UniProtKB/TrEMBL annotation:
Keywords: Signal. Transmembrane segments: none annotated. Pfam families: CARME. It comes from Kazachstania africana (strain ATCC 22294 / BCRC 22015 / CBS 2517 / CECT 1963 / NBRC 1671 / NRRL Y-8276). This is Uncharacterized protein. One of its GO terms (molecular function) is S-adenosylmethionine-dependent methyltransferase activity. Residues 1-22 form the signal peptide. Coiled coil: none annotated. The gene is KAFR0B03190.
Amino acid sequence: MSEGKLVLVSLVTLIMSIVARSARFKNFVSSVFSEKVFDKDIIINSPTLKLTSHIPLQFESGNVSTFKNLKQTLRAFEEYGIRARDQNNILISRANGFDAIVHNQLRVIGYFDKLDGVQDGINRNTIVTKKIIKTILSNLTFANYFDSSISNDWKLEIKRLCDSFGYRIDEQSKVLVQIPDHKVTCMFNNPLSRVIESISHLCKDYSENFEIERKPIIKFIKGQLDKLDVSSNDLLVVPGSGAGFLSWQLATSYQNVKVDSIELSGLMYLTNLFAMNYKEKDIRIYPFVQFYSGQKNLENQLLEMHVPLERVKKPENLNPLWGDFTVYMPVSNKHDKIFVITAYFIDTAEDLIEYVKAIEALKKYCKKVHWINVGPLKYGTQPKIQLNGEELARLRKIRGWTDTFESYSNDCEGGLNGYLTDTNSLYQGYYGHLQFHSYI
Ligand SMILES: *[C@@H]1O[C@H](CO)[C@@H](O)[C@H](O)[C@H]1NC(C)=O
Ligand SMILES: *[C@@H]1O[C@H](CO)[C@@H](O)[C@H](O)[C@H]1NC(C)=O
């Protein structure tokens, strides 16, 4: 290298090092890269929604929910309105494709009015998805934005997030204010069906209409728990807690016992938090609005369900956690008994053995683990194994479990249970239950 070049290189290096140290440059860099660097590294504590860089005790071995997960989940809720409308519009345009005579007949029989009615129902459901977004955003803001221990970078992230959903943080009154003319754009490839499932779960979990589906589950579980002495030194664990009715019911019924519920899906988890945190008027949901098949008439399709959330408050002893059950650990290892309650859960496993091992791992935190299960064996997507009831019973036995109870309810004269089942429909799905109570 010639002397001239060497001088030039050193000079450039010197200048770069000065520039790199300047605060303004650093801010510039962080503003350009922050979105990428930050959001997946900011961990969300649940249920407080407090931001942190420390992995919560319950999930120390990994896979925790992050700011990025929260963002994407809220985005999926926001996109519900557009995606649902697009789906309905496809039906409108297909019907528009008929010749003039048929088109007119479709109009006369009310087919187009029906599709308009569906759009109306979608619009009303959108009121709920908007409420979910606003409630979660305001809980997030309130938990962090006014807290001096939270860094300004993170506060900026919150501010941007609110802004991207059309809300401004009013620093004086500490509330979110809607920005007029907020436009929604679809960015992610969010499956509409998952969002519909989540908001329908507000009905399944908390509305009178689905009491019939909740009752047999609660009855069986309480029946098993009440055979034993559930005491304050015990812990109830509810994996796959969904929108939260079971963990909420159990925490309400056994107030001296801590209940940890764990949910992996952001959509379900935020729906659960919404149910606990939303304090305004009741909400109304149209769970079957886009069920075009099997309907007798539009009224049935537009069935409105009333969800009285004002009575759903988070009991002190309930700790709803957002994370992966297979890496969950209780905070204390001095429990007497841990009760793991699985309802409509085990067949969701890609790897059932992993679930069983995760339940057995709780033995380190107590003297005895009780496993109370109720639900079908309808294995989900790409399961590694699909055990039948007897195989599962033998597996429990050879792994050291002792059954105190096992039964099947699969009698169509009354032993079956719906799952978001539309009882007016010409197609109705029902499940049989495998119920067992086992301990190790
Ligand atoms: C966390 O779990 C989800 C769902 O099982 C999975 O898709 C994701 O890859 C996991 N993340 C990490 C960091 O293990
Ligand atoms: C969450 O936000 C709602 C709506 O602003 C509020 O009513 C509720 O008290 C908040 N809950 C928590 C736990 O912050």
